[in-house]
């Protein structure tokens, strides 16, 4: 098996060689290193897209440089439930990114679910459904949320095309 070692990190290369047999049956024709490398490269790109999505979400922390709306009207369980959901979405994104890097068989559908959740978060905010704030959305925030929802759609289409 002549995989170009300089493209893969030593750890990813060792993992890939150790667990590549199922992929030989599912994704690749027998002993086709070019297809295998293309698949690993696509998984790496998908992982980077997931990391971009979580980074774009992280800079929207309320009270930060972009998100300046007032959410004081959100009370108790709604406030903490929404924050917990966003924290779990961020943590799930890091897990999905790692699973994509190691070419896990479940990584693609997990990335699809993550992309759908990002889309829902930004769509309900852009539609003004939730979270409601007496403060209007600033233009930089609006632009960033449009970029974020576009990245969620792109992630979904990218990983769907791979599966």
Q: How large is the radius of gyration?
A: 19 Å
Instruction: Tell me the total number of β-strands.
Output: 0
Derived structural class: mainly alpha
Catalogue the unreliable spans: 1-8, 20-30
Task: Reconstruct the topology from this structure.
Layout: H1 10-19, H2 21-26, H3 33-58, H4 76-101, H5 107-126, H6 139-162
Helix pairs in contact: 3-4, 3-6, 4-5, 5-6
Protein name: Cytochrome c oxidase subunit IV
Keywords: Membrane, Transmembrane, Transmembrane helix
Domain DUF8051: 45-160
Structure described in brief:
The protein has 163 residues and is mainly α. It contains 6 helices and no strands.
Features:
about 160 residues; mainly alpha; 6 helices; about 70% helix; about 0% strand; disordered N terminus
General description of the model:
With 163 residues, the protein is mostly helical. The chain has one domain (10-162). The protein has helices at residues 10-19, 21-26, 33-58, 76-101, 107-126, 139-162. α3 (33-58) packs antiparallel against α6, α4 (76-101) packs antiparallel against α5 and α5 runs antiparallel to α6 (139-162). The longest helix is centred in the N-terminal third of the chain and has 26 residues, at 33-58. Residues 45-160 form the DUF8051 domain. Keywords: Membrane, Transmembrane, Transmembrane helix. This is Cytochrome c oxidase subunit IV. It holds the Pfam family DUF8051.
């Amino acid at each position: 098996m002549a995989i170009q070692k300089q493209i893969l990190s030593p750890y990813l290369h060792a993992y890939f060689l150790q667990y590549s047999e199922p992929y030989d049956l599912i994704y690749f024709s027998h002993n086709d290193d070019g297809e295998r490398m293309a698949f690993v490269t696509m998984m790496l790109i998908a992982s980077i897209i997931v990391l971009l999505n979580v980074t774009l979400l992280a800079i929207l922390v309320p009270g930060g440089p972009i998100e300046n709306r007032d959410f004081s009207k959100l009370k108790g369980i709604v406030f903490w439930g929404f924050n917990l959901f966003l924290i779990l979405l961020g943590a799930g994104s890091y897990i999905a990114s790692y699973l994509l890097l190691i070419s896990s068989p479940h990584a693609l559908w997990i990335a699809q679910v993550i992309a759908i959740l990002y889309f829902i978060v930004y769509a309900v905010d852009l539609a003004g459904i939730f979270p409601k704030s007496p403060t209007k959305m600033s233009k930089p925030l609006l632009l960033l949320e449009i970029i974020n929802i576009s990245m969620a759609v792109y992630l979904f289409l990218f990983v769907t095309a791979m599966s």
